[in-house]
Automatic annotation (TrEMBL):
Name of the featured protein: Lipoprotein
């Protein structure tokens, strides 16, 4: 019996130290909890905080974790944007940003198509996420195949998330605005690629635009979502960006498309982006 136990001991030690396998892919955030809320809900009903639970909030619709096959990653949660290299160590995902900062996410639950991660953003500067607060996030593996060069999960179309440190010049505001429009186009393109047009969340896009069956319109300034204004340094910079869009709408002749629905919205978004880019 003692001999058998000695044989089994290395097996148990190896099992305890084995690294969890995590499939590379684009993981869309579906829910998030502060630890106090998470524990209270779990105490009442464990199933209410499983990794397969989805919550309806605009922040989740535009937040994601992309884990690429070459061990690079992109993490986007509101104004948090990290990209660099990642590694799996036991039950943790270690993210190392190119600027040197690190974020360790503990895998609390894993199913074939979803994961739940626990993180503390103590090295990450953010206006939206409190430092040193333990936060739980649910992510679902997105199976949609990306056909465009820069999908909504790439770093290149998400740099608008990086908060400006000071009031920006017109050129800097325009660059930020164009990048946001690139993200909007990629977001809509992703919905088109998915082939599922019902139930998608357009409020996942911070934008002053409204989407109609046959095109897009610019909202009145008083009706522009705060989430879009927050992209800029302050309300004054946001209004300057709004004026750029207003002038582009006013001075650009719209193309006519024999289409309707989300596809024509995508066409007009691309037209708006290109017209704004060409505007001196």
């Amino acid at each position: 019996m003692k001999y058998i136990l000695l044989l089994l001991l290395p097996f148990f030690i190896g099992s305890c130290t084995e690294t969890i396998q995590l499939q590379p892919g684009n993981y869309q955030m579906t829910c998030g909890y502060k630890e106090s809320v998470y524990k209270a809900m779990k105490k009442t009903d464990r199933g209410s905080v499983g990794c397969n639970v989805a919550c309806d909030h605009e922040i989740y619709h535009r937040s994601f974790l992309a884990l690429n096959k070459d061990k690079t990653f992109v993490l986007a949660i509101e104004d948090v944007l990290m990209h660099g290299n990642y590694e799996l160590v036991k039950n943790k995902v270690k993210l190392k940003d190119r600027d040197g900062s690190e974020l360790i996410l503990e895998i609390k639950e894993q199913q074939p198509d979803c994961i739940q991660l626990l993180g503390v953003f103590d090295e990450i500067s953010s206006r939206a996420i409190s430092a040193n607060e333990r936060l739980y996030f649910n992510f679902t593996l997105d199976s949609t195949q990306s056909v465009e060069t820069d999908s909504k999960f790439t770093y290149e179309v998400n740099t608008w998330r990086i908060a400006p440190m000071d009031s920006e010049s017109d050129a800097e505001i325009k660059k930020r605005l164009l990048n946001n429009l690139d993200y909007v186009c990629a977001y809509v393109q992703h919905v088109l690629n998915s082939g599922v047009y019902h139930g998608y969340k357009m409020d996942g896009i911070p934008t002053p635009l409204r989407y109609l069956e046959n095109g897009i319109v610019l909202r009145e300034w008083d009706n522009v979502p705060q989430s879009w204004k927050d992209i800029f340094y302050d309300e004054s910079d946001a209004y300057r960006a709004y004026e750029m869009m207003y002038e582009t709408f006013k001075n650009t002749e719209a193309n006519r498309y024999k289409r309707s629905g989300l596809l024509v919205v995508f066409y007009y978004l691309k037209d708006l982006r290109n017209a704004l880019s060409d505007k001196q």
